[in-house]
Amino acid sequence: MKMRCAVRGQDRCRTLGLLLLWMLFNGSAVADGGPLRVVLRGYAHPATIQEHLELLSHACWTSKGLPAAPVPLLSAAQLEQAPQEQNEELFDGERWAMYTTNAAFVVDPSNCQPIILRSFQVNVIDGCRRALRGHKGTPLYNGNETAQAMVFDDPVGCARRQTKRETDLSGLPVDDAGLGVQCIWTADIVARELKMPLGKRSGTDTCLYARRSHVAHPSGTKRVVVRMRLDNRNDRGGDVGAIIPMAAEMKLAEFSDGTPIPPTRFSREGVEAFLRQPHKQALGAAR
Fold first, then answer.
1. Structure pTM?
2. What is the pLDDT of residues 202-232, one digit of tens each?
3. Which branch of life, at top level (predicted)?
4. How far apart are CA 151 and CA 122, in angstroms?
5. Which letter, b or e, does each residue of 262-286 get, where b requires 16 or more Cβ atoms within 10 Å of its Cβ?
6. Using one digit for the tens of pLDDT, what is the confidence trace for 231-265?
7. Contact 121, 134 (CB under 8 A)
8. Which residues in the chain land under pLDDT 70?
9. Could you count the other beta carbons within 10 Å of the beta carbon of residue 41?
10. What pLDDT is attached to residue 267?
11. Predicted pLDDT at 18
12. How far is it between the farthest Cα atoms of the chain?
């Protein structure tokens, strides 16, 4: 959030903060139901990734006093397997988990070849009984080092159950999140509550699952986000994503409603398995 605030300016971040505060202190449509699994993926623009790698590669070769070698053109298949960010969110009664993978396109300082460095974060809450947090690597991790996985047991903060008024979502515009899933933009929920015009489609916003926009949880009500729009504009209206690899939207990639979720996904075993993934991936040798 801090990085995006610096890019977009204080006014946009203040607006986003007001939306989040409204959602926190006002009622929401909270529904009980079966397990939910939501996977969102966001991709940076291929041309931006290529240009970024070429600049880094040139700087790397120059630092070694050698002529720059060309960077291989990344294939569509390579890029498809390397989302800039992936969020997998799991809801199952009193259990909740978020598995996040971030990818940074960089060059290996040892040989100036393009690589992907992935970082992993995971948070698990098992009702009021247990919370787990784990991470491995960072976007600035040195390609010559070995990323260490770390898992922590966190205290569980269970909110007192309070009766909240429900927000009526009927009549609000419904959008297509993909995979046959419909969603409602948070901006429209807030706009109607504040008696403002609906349908504004600018800036950062999240689209909530129309059937179950929120899920009640002992640690606090959680939103079911099935689509996300990220504002990559700078203060002058330029597109930062055209210069630095940055996803402009998180789209629904996988989804299930009612399909059982393996209990291990909410356990230390599941967290450790997720963090065992390799953090470094080669993108091919120079031509």
1. 0.82
2. 778 999 999 999 998 888 889 999 999 987 6
3. Bacteria
4. 9
5. eeebbbeebbeebbeeebbeebeee
6. 766 666 566 566 678 888 999 999 999 999 999 99
7. yes
8. 1-32, 139-147, 159-167, 232-243, 284-287
9. 19
10. 94
11. 47
12. 67
pLDDT tens per residue across span 185-207: 999 998 888 888 887 777 789 99
Nearest to residue 112, comparing CAs of 152, 63, 79, 52? 63
Residue found under tokens 């393009």: 114
Residue that is written with structure tokens 């899920």 in the block: 215
Separation of alpha carbons 164 and 161, rounded Å: 9
